[in-house]
């Protein structure tokens, strides 16, 4: 919470006002309490005193009028007194009633007694009036001075007692009021003193705190004025003085920042950007301008240091010495750069200027320019083929001149070597001076190649001559082989004819078998039908037999009944009884026979049925056999055709073999001619001289012989290949016609040797 | 046939393996088994009524009557029609037998009394027992077998028919 000076003043005055309000409230309350008490006194005891006086006065008046009525003789006046008495009596009673209503516990009894006395007095009233109006004055005066007098005295006494009580009450009220007054007065005095003390404390505290803050500010600004910026002001309260201290502190820190930035700039560090606090911060702006211009210069010099000369110094005023000299330096640099650039593209048209005796760069540039011109002249001469110039070295480190010298020498060497090679001397061996020496490398490879070609050609000529001799020997062997082949071909043809006749017989037999098997199938079907018929017949028989059985049973029963009748007839029926028993026996026998027949027929039916089922199974098997036999006979016919084709092929093979024999003789003549031509070739190659040419040729001869022999063999195979292929095609055709029954036994014969048999 | 040994003729019948005999004089006729007309509220052994040459005749299952287990009829089952002489009248009824064998002749001295087992039992329906090589034959006393109540029942059934 911010406990500002304003708040402090408000709090102080508020406290004073609150104290005042409390005091006034207490005073008002005690005054009103006093007022109430006074009202109570006025309405209570004072009123009662007044009423007592009133009633006493009325009582006195009544007493006086009674006496007057006794004394007065004039009846009219007596009447008038009487009327007056009534008025006073009324007032008297009213006063008593009112006083009694206001009575307290202390004087209520007094007033009640007073009322009783008043009643007594009223009772005497009519009697007295009677006596007075009747003229009996003696009696009236006796009455007044006799019984009525103590009544009067009693009332007066009561009234005096009542007054005394009321006075006591009044005195008590007065004492209470005084007490209240004293209490109120004392408390108000104490409150006023306390309020005064509190207020005084507050005010002195406020004044002290403000004074302390101002003192600190004064000290801080005094220190800043003499350049001390490190003083920190400490202030604990949060109020307007703190705000003031804060702004003074801000000023101090700003000054410190500027000082720090200036320090860095003076040390050459331009990384810090001076802050501009507002539009009117002239100091900050000036500092920033200094930093910016310094940075520009630094950046331009940095570029120049890495060779970028794009920086153009702009002077900020006529007195800006730094930037003017920088400008002149940059101009010189530009000029030097232009000269070097032209030199680098080979343009020597500009001669560099020397600015002073100490201008070493200018002097060196001039020397360089002169040397370049000289070298270009020498190179021009060399390009025209003039190798006579001998360059001189300007110093130990003159590599350019040394290189030109070496170039001239090596060019001379190369020319000499080329001359020797042209003369047929292949023994020269050019040595390359480095890995990148293209010219001498090319020369070296040329010599190497030439040597290789010459020695290869020599070796090839040797190989050809020896190969052609071997070839003639091989050709002789081949013609022998062809003769043997012709003989074995004839043998094969004979055995093939025998095989063909066997195959023909097989085909005939197969055709006959086919016919027979077809017939068997038909017969088997017919047997099946016959068996079925037999089964049906047997079933019919079994049915009929049951009829016979029934008849036999009936007969048996009839015979039994007959026997019974006969027995009952006694002696007369004896003969009949015999007949009956015979009939019964017959019936039993026929029954037995019928049962046997029935059993047999059942068995027969079962046997016939199983026979029928077996036949039914047999029929398809027989049919299948017939079909297979038909296929076998077809295959046999195909085999027959195939055998005759093989025969034809064998005859063709015979012809080819004879042709081979004649071709091999021609080959022998050709190989001899080849040998003579290879000798001619050897003679012409001998022009070139090589160190190892002869030895190499001798070593390579036996190696090269084999390929020559193999080439001859290949040719022979090729001449017979057409016929062999034709034979293979014939086999394929046959296979296609026979649909898998002809087996090509010659195919893959050699491959089969690679496999083992396991089963 | 000499006077010394008197002979009688019986019709033998089978119930299972046992052979029984009825005097031939009481047998009127032997019939094939046929289904009978069942009479309501009749006793178990009364199978019902059949028509024998125009007369309603009650049929009794002999097996039930003798307390044997019933068997289904087959081709050998017969109904033996009997005329049983009672004291005052002749009772006609059919007996169902498993098989009727033959007319057999037994000599009187062949016939023995009912077997004595030491206690009283209902053996009065047995007129006698004949021992043969093939086995025993029990002779029925029919009028006793069909005791009074049975006979009356049977005859009353006949009257009702």
TrEMBL record, chain A:
Domain HAMP: 208-260, 405-455
Coiled coil region boundaries: 646-680
Biased composition (Basic and acidic residues): 515-525
Any matching Pfam family: HAMP
Ranges of residues in domain Methyl-accepting transducer: 460-675
InterPro entries named in the record: Chemotax_Me-accpt_rcpt, HAMP_dom, HlyB_4HB_MCP, MCP_chemotaxis, MCPsignal_dom
Domain of life: Bacteria
Sequence intervals crossing the membrane: 188-208
Family: Belongs to the methyl-accepting chemotaxis (MCP) protein family.
Alphabetized PANTHER family for the sequence: METHYL-ACCEPTING CHEMOTAXIS PROTEIN 3, PROTEIN ICFG
Name assigned to this protein: Methyl-accepting chemotaxis protein
Species classification: Bacteria, Pseudomonadati, Pseudomonadota, Alphaproteobacteria, Micropepsales
UniProtKB/TrEMBL annotation, chain B:
InterPro entries: CheW, CheW-like_dom_sf, CheW-lke_dom
PANTHER family: CHEMOTAXIS PROTEIN CHEW, CHEMOTAXIS SENSOR HISTIDINE KINASE-RELATED
Domain CheW-like: 7-151
Domain of life: Bacteria
SMART domains: CheW
Cross-referenced PROSITE patterns: CHEW (PS50851)
Pfam families membership: CheW
Protein name, entry field: Chemotaxis protein CheW
């Amino acid at each position: 919470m911010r406990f500002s000076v304003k708040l402090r003043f408000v709090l102080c005055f508020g406290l004073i006002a609150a104290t005042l309000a409390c005091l006034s409230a207490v005073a008002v309350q005690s005054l009103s309490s006093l007022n109430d008490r006074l009202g109570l006194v006025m309405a209570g005891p004072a009123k009662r005193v007044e009423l007592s006086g009133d009633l006493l006065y009325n009582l006195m008046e009544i007493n006086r009028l009674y006496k007057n009525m006794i004394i007065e003789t004039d009846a009219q006046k007596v009447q008038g007194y009487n009327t007056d008495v009534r008025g006073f009596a009324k007032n008297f009673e009213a006063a008593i009633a009112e006083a009694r209503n206001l009575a307290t516990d202390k004087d209520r009894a007094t007033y009640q007694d007073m009322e009783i006395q008043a009643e007594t007095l009223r009772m005497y009233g009519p009697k007295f009036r009677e006596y007075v109006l009747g003229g009996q004055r003696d009696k009236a005066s006796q009455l007044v001075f006799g019984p009525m007098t103590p009544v009067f005295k009693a009332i007066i006494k009561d009234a005096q007692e009542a007054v005394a009580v009321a006075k006591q009450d009044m005195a008590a009220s007065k004492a209470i009021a005084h007490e209240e007054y004293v209490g109120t007065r004392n408390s108000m005095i104490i409150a006023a003193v306390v309020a005064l003390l509190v207020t005084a404390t507050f005010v002195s505290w406020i004044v002290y705190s403000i004074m302390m803050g101002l003192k600190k500010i004064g000290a801080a600004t005094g220190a800043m004025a003499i350049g001390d910026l490190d003083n920190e002001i400490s202030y604990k309260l949060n109020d307007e003085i703190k705000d003031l201290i804060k702004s003074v502190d801000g000023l101090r820190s700003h000054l410190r920042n500027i000082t720090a930035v200036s320090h860095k700039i003076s040390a050459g560090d331009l990384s810090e950007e001076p802050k501009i606090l507002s539009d009117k911060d002239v100091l900050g702006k000036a500092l920033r301008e200094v930093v910016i211009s310094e940075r520009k210069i630094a950046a331009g010099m940095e570029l120049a240091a890495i060779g970028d000369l794009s920086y153009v110094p702009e002077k900020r005023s006529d007195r800006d010495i730094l930037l003017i000299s920088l400008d002149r330096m940059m101009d010189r640099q530009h000029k030097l750069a232009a000269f070097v650039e032209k030199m680098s593209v080979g343009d020597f048209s500009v001669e560099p200027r020397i600015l002073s005796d100490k201008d070493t760069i200018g002097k060196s540039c001039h020397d360089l320019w002169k040397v370049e011109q000289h070298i270009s002249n020498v190179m021009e001469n060399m390009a025209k083929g003039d190798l006579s110039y001998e360059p001189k070295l300007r110093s130990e480190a003159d590599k350019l001149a040394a290189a030109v010298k070496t170039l001239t020498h090596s060019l001379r060497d190369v020319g000499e070597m080329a001359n020797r090679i042209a003369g047929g001397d292949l023994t020269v061996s050019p040595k390359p001076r480095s890995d990148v020496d293209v010219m001498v490398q090319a020369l070296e490879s040329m010599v190497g190649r030439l040597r290789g070609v010459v020695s290869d050609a020599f070796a090839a000529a040797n190989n050809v001559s020896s190969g052609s001799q071997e070839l003639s020997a091989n050709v002789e062997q081949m013609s022998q082989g062809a003769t043997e082949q012709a003989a074995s071909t004839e043998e094969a043809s004979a055995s093939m004819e025998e095989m063909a006749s066997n195959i023909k017989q097989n085909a005939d037999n197969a055709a006959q078998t086919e016919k027979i098997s077809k017939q068997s199938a038909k017969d088997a079907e017919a047997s099946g039908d016959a068996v079925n018929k037999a089964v049906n017949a047997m079933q019919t028989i079994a049915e009929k037999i049951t009829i016979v059985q029934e008849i036999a049973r009936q007969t048996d029963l009839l015979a039994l009944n007959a026997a019974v009748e006969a027995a009952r007839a006694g002696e007369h029926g004896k003969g009949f009884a015999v007949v009956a028993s015979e009939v019964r026996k017959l019936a039993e026998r026929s029954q037995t026979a019928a049962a046997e027949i029935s059993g047999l027929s059942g068995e027969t039916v079962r046997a016939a049925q199983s026979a029928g089922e077996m036949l039914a199974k047999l029929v398809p098997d027989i049919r299948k056999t017939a079909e297979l036999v038909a296929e076998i006979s077809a295959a046999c016919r195909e085999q027959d055709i195939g055998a005759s084709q093989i025969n034809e092929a064998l005859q063709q093979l015979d012809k080819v073999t004879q042709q081979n024999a004649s071709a091999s003789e021609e080959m022998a003549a050709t190989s001899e001619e080849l040998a003579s031509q290879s000798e001619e070739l050897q003679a012409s190659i001998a022009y070139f001289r090589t160190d190892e040419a002869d030895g190499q040729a001798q070593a390579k001869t036996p190696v090269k012989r084999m390929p020559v022999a193999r080439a001859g063999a290949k040719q022979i195979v090729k001449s017979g290949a057409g016929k062999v292929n034709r034979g293979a095609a014939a086999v394929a055709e046959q296979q296609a016609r026979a649909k898998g029954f002809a087996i090509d036994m010659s195919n893959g014969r050699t491959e089969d040797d690679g496999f083992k048999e396991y089963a | 046939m000499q006077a010394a040994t008197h002979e009688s003729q019986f019709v033998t019948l089978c119930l299972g393996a046992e052979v029984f005999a009825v005097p031939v004089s009481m047998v009127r006729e032997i019939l094939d088994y046929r289904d009978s007309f069942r009479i309501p509220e009749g006793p178990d052994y009364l199978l019902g009524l059949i028509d024998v040459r125009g007369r309603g005749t009650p049929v009794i299952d002999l097996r039930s009557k003798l307390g044997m287990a019933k068997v289904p009829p087959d081709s050998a089952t017969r109904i033996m029609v009997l005329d049983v002489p009672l004291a005052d009248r002749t009772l006609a009824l059919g007996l169902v037998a498993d098989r009727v064998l033959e007319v057999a002749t037994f000599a009187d001295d062949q016939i023995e009394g009912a077997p004595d087992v030491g206690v009283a039992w209902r053996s009065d329906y047995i007129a006698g027992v004949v021992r043969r090589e093939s086995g025993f034959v029990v002779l029925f006393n029919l009028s006793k077998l069909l005791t009074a109540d049975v006979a009356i029942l049977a005859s009353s059934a006949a009257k009702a028919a």
